[in-house]
Amino acid sequence: MSELHKLRVFLCHASQDKPTVRELYQRLNTEDWIDPWLDEEKLLPGQDWDMEIEKAVGSSAAVVVCLSNNSITKEGYIQKELRFVLQIADEKPEGTVFVIPLRLNDCHVPRRLRGWQYVDFFPNDRREWAYKRLLESIKLHSAPPARDRKLSRILTKDEQSLIDLANNARKRAYAPYSNYKVGAALLTKSGRIYTGVNVENAVYPNTICAERVAVYNAISEGEIEFEKIAVVTDNGGSPCGGCRQVLAEFGLDTIVLIANGEGRLVQETTVAGLLPGAFTPKDLVS
Question: Residue 276: is the preceding peptide bond cis (ω within 30°)?
Fold first, then answer.
């Protein structure tokens, strides 16, 4: 399976537990649907540790928090990682399995993690059972709630291509003030594709979003019937209200693919889903 379609699983751990966590990483890495993230394997020389850890956690489908007598008593980076993990978990939809505590030995589970069911990765003769339980938990992420069911499917080649076009366009965004670059790629019903990027302005209200640039590019070429739009930001942010209203002008059934900077789909919906009760041209008919 393509790396873009694998579920990223971040392994949060204390350095003293590295041998056991490394073993777990190697096992997860054999699964063709999982992209495990371990610092010693993923970080490159010269990369900013804090920044890369935050990016990895933010883009992960699940975080396995490896607990031991080492990690729960150690002050320092693992506690910082854990605070960030819990912050991200708070932003996830209610009922989503995001944090998975994994006890490596008979240690106490910190109070702030007691809201999640843990699994014991010990003793050694129990590890195979524990590993299977861990996989079952991670798989819950590939079967999200019904309203988001499409997130778990593999993208078609054309859909991934549309996301890639938006992501490539994003590199050309003019965002010197927010540094929040957005790219969009709009597929019309005639089969043509129009891209757009956000263009900021020193007079802030004059800033224009990538989605609207793509729409206006299409309109300037006589295209007003849209099939699908891909929107890419670094963190998979959703279109703003103004862009939702502009898209609604040309049809509520337009499919919206929202992806992050790695080209990974984080949400699939429609304009109607983004803007319930939209005010459209038909509402002006007396």
Answer: no
Instruction: Decide: 186 and 194 in contact? Cβ < 8 Å.
Output: yes
Q: Name every residue whose Cβ is closer than 8 Å to that of residue 119 and which is 6 or more positions away in sequence.
A: 100, 101, 102, 103, 130, 133, 134, 137
Edge-to-edge strand order for the sheet containing 226-232?
193-197, 183-188, 226-232, 255-259, 265-270
Domains parsed from the chain with CATH numbers: 3-152 (3.40.50.10140), 157-284 (3.40.140.10)
Q: How many CB atoms lie within 10 A of CB 255?
A: 18
According to DSSP, the β-strands at 255-259 and 226-232 are parallel
202-228 per-position pLDDT tens digit: 999 999 999 999 999 999 999 999 999
Residue stretches of the chain with pLDDT short of 70: 1-5, 74-78, 88-97, 140-154, 285-286
Residues 192-204 pLDDT 10s? 999 999 999 999 9
Whole-prediction pTM = 0.51
Of these residues, 81, 159, 200, 211, which one is catalytic? 211
Known catalytic residue at 54: no
Could you tell me how far CA 67 lies from the centroid of its own chain? Answer: 25
- Note whether 101 and 72 are within 8 A (CB): no
Backbone φ, ψ for residue 180 (5° rounding): -105, 95
Token representation of residue 107: 């240690």
